[in-house]
Amino acid sequence: MWETFLLFTIPVGGGIPAGVVLGQSQGIGWIVLTILYLISDVCLAFAFEPILKVIGILSRYVRPLKVVCDVLKESTNRTIARYGTKQGPVTLIAIAFGVDPMTGRAAALAAGHGFIAGWTVAIIGDMFFFLLIMGSTIWLHNVLGDGSVAALIVMGCMLIVPPLIRKVRQRIKSS
Asked: Best label site of 14, 30, 113, 172, fewest CB within 10 Å?
């Protein structure tokens, strides 16, 4: 179970399909997998929040770090802008679902939410993402009979589908 949890702590989506396949091979059911992933998100919150605070403080005194922070803020603002101007809980959940929980937390912080509320919406969005990827991985594993191939296909889709959707949207807008 520990190995599955460690895969879930990888801050990019590739850990999800691999963790689901590994967990299933160890006889871990989907409910326990979901709880493990939730715990990994809570651990992320407690690890990431102090880093976010320290970087914010240091950026006041270290010029190159301030430049990096400004670039990240601008990137976050562009990401948030795609979801509209009103940053309510549903929008913040959508940001965490569509990008990642750290961006969701940064957006929640920008919208004025503190630690608990900010991470709650970020984790809810990430849990929706997890359930979608876990369900897809389990279904594909059942169809193909090979968990490794299922995980690779899901990871490939996670990398390829979002840019394709953006491209299609751009073509529709320019038409």
From this structure: 172
Amino acid at 146: D
Cβ atoms within 10 Å, residue 9: 16
Give the other-Cβ count within 10 Å of 117's Cβ: 15
Is residue 121 within 8 A of residue 93, CB to CB? The reply is: yes
Instruction: Encode burial over 40-59: b for 16+ CB neighbours within 10 A, e otherwise.
Output: bbeebbeebbeeeeeeeeeb
Closest residue by Cα to residue 92 from 75, 76, 80, 78:
80
Average the pLDDT over 102-106 and give the result: 83
Considering the entire predicted model, what is its pTM?
Answer: 0.78
Domain boundaries, the chain: 2-164
Cβ 134 vs Cβ 20: under 8 Å: yes
Q: How far apart are CA 106 and CA 91, in angstroms?
A: 13
φ, ψ dihedrals at 59, nearest 5°: -65, -20
Lowest mean pLDDT, pick from 80-89, 103-112, 124-133: 80-89
Q: Quick: pLDDT tens for 42-89.
A: 998 999 889 878 888 888 898 988 888 788 778 767 766 766 666 778
